TrEMBL record:
The chain crosses the membrane at residues 46-66, 78-96, 116-136, 157-177, 189-209, 216-236, 256-277, 298-318, 338-359, 411-433, 439-460. Keywords: Membrane, Transmembrane, Transmembrane helix. Pfam families: MatE. This is Protein DETOXIFICATION. GO terms for molecular function: antiporter activity; xenobiotic transmembrane transporter activity. GO terms for cellular component: membrane. CDD domains: MATE_eukaryotic. GO terms for biological process: xenobiotic detoxification by transmembrane export across the plasma membrane. The keyword Transmembrane helix applies. It comes from Genlisea aurea. Belongs to the multi antimicrobial extrusion (MATE) (TC 2.A.66.1) family. It is a multi-pass membrane protein. The keyword Aminoacyl-tRNA synthetase does not apply. It is found in: Membrane.
Length: 508
């Protein structure tokens, strides 16, 4: 089939790779249609994020209920857990996202099941060394000059969180496996059920069994375990697994090159951003009155986590849309998804800034009544809001890059923005210029502004025609070494295998 022929694509209605629309700005009707498609994915994902956020809020409330020391120790422990564990597991799992998304668009369904198996094995393997680090966390914290009482409390928390690593090794891949097929609403419903059980679990473990901060950590792991079991039941009884089912075999131990080439850079990109926030907690411990500054930092990170739900959901939605459309050889639609999502991200940034400014004097009271903590929180919240003006486009841009299977570029942008720009600014304003706690957040503001500018420039330069060919190569390379377990897909998508032009396959 000639590359210059319109029959290169599944049918005559699909976007031609040389279509002038690859250079034009989307029309209003195209934008509205794309908002609907992204909304089908990002809407339920955002609701799920809010539900899971409520679980984190419940945990923070129970930490505050136990006392100021417990709140500081738990906040520090969660920060360290994010640096050393949660960010790694989450980042590695995202490596499967472009493979599954593009394979679904190309109708290579068996590749989804095989990639799910490989990713679960990868995450389980990574969980073992991480758990060893967690067991010895107190020594590491003391070596970093953290307060001994806070470090002891953090150790008590993180030891009971170790099972959560292995639970998340199943939870993250299952969510990505379903989302890349457009299945989002069931995950929202199941997340609601699991979170409803989170409060009674905390009451039993913390109040009645007197397990303290360890009980709160264990309740988090058990809540995630409940969600994994519920999702497993859904996948089995709904039959959604059947088109992509691959019997476990030695095939899942082969052909890891493509997965690792995506998982490792994605992990680095995620970690670089997550680590920044957690390093801020560590730096807070070096300021005067570390108990108050660490507690306030924990509250503020919970605030950013709440706001982050929306750009993160938009990022996940556009990543799925872009990867599906590239896999289906529709570059113009992928480009429209990227443009519409970035416009929506800019609007989200303005809304987020208004929200944080409006709640600056009330938000901290949800967690504590300590006057010093409340003062620090109120002073930093407006800066947090300004950060969201850059964070929302940056997060969404990372989603576009994941959809095009180019996580290395995102990692380089995050490295340059957060550590070559943001970190020096934070150290200068926080310690050299004596601005203290707000100064650390000014460093984040500088990082997010730089990151958003670089991300926008990177997206502007994408060659969408080339990304279609890369998607075809990605599916072929990911299927290599799998024997007969994957679909025998042709180099180009023939008409009888093509996705029809009706609508993208979005299942709720």
């Amino acid at each position: 089939m000639r590359t210059s022929d319109k029959t290169l694509l599944p049918n005559a209605h699909n976007d031609d790779v040389h279509d002038p629309s690859l250079r034009a700005f989307p029309s209003l009707s195209q934008g509205i249609e794309e908002v609907k498609e992204i909304g089908k994915l990002s809407g339920p994902t955002a609701v799920t994020g809010l539900i899971l956020y409520s679980r984190a809020m419940i945990s923070m409330v129970f930490l505050g209920y136990l006392g100021e020391l417990e709140l500081a120790g738990g906040s520090l422990s969660i920060g360290v857990a994010n640096i050393t564990g949660y960010s790694v597991i989450s980042g590695l799992a995202m490596g499967m996202e472009p493979i599954c998304g593009q394979a679904f668009g190309a109708k290579q369904m068996k590749l989804l099941g095989l990639t799910l198996q490989r990713t679960i094995l990868l995450l389980l393997t990574a969980s073992f060394p991480i758990s060893l680090i967690w067991v010895n966390m107190k020594r590491i914290l003391l070596w970093c000059n953290q307060d001994e009482e806070i470090s002891t409390m953090a150790q008590n928390f993180i030891v009971f969180a170790v099972p959560d690593l292995f639970v998340l090794s199943f939870l993250h891949p299952l969510r990505i496996y379903l989302r890349t097929q457009g299945i989002t609403l069931p995950v929202t419903y199941l997340s609601s059920v699991s979170v409803l059980l989170h409060v009674p679990l905390n009451l039993i473990l913390v109040r009645y069994l007197k397990m303290g901060v360890g009980g709160i950590a264990l309740a988090m792991a058990l809540t995630n375990l409940n969600l994994v079991l519920l999702m497993g039941f859904y996948v089995y009884f709904s039959g959604v697994y059947k088109p992509s089912w691959v019997a476990p075999s030695m095939d899942c131990l082969r052909g890891w090159t493509t997965l690792l080439s995506l998982a490792v850079p994605t992990c680095i990109s995620v970690c670089l951003e997550w680590w920044w926030y957690e390093i801020m907690i560590m730096l807070s411990g070096l300021l005067p009155n570390p108990t108050a500054t660490i507690s306030s930092m924990g509250i503020l990170i919970q605030t950013t986590s709440l706001v982050y739900v929306f750009p993160s959901s938009l990022s996940l939605g556009v990543s799925t849309r872009v990867s599906n459309e590239l896999g289906a050889r529709r570059p113009a639609r992928a480009r429209v998804s990227a443009i519409v999502s970035m416009v929506a991200a800019a609007a989200l940034g303005v809304i987020a800034m208004g929200f944080t400014v409006a709640i600056r004097k009330r938000w901290g009271r949800l967690f504590t009544s300590d006057a010093e903590i409340l003062k620090l929180t109120a002073a930093a919240l407006p800066i947090v809001g300004l950060c969201e003006l850059g964070n929302c486009p940056q997060t969404t841009g990372c989603g576009v890059l994941r959809g095009t299977a180019r996580p290395t570029l995102g990692a380089n942008i995050n490295l340059g923005s957060f550590y070559l720009v943001g970190m020096p600014v934070a150290l200068l304003t926080g310690f050299v210029f004596k601005l203290g706690f707000p100064g650390l957040w000014l460093g984040l503001l500088a990082a997010q502004g730089c990151c958003a500018a670089m991300m926008t420039a990177a997206l502007y330069r994408i060659d969408w025609t080339a990304q279609v060919e890369r998607a075809k190569e990605l599916c072929r390379d990911s299927s290599s070494g799998a024997g007969k377990t994957t679909d025998d897909a042709p180099d180009v998508i023939d008409n009888e295998l093509a996705i029809t032009e009706t609508e993208p396959l979005i299942k709720n």
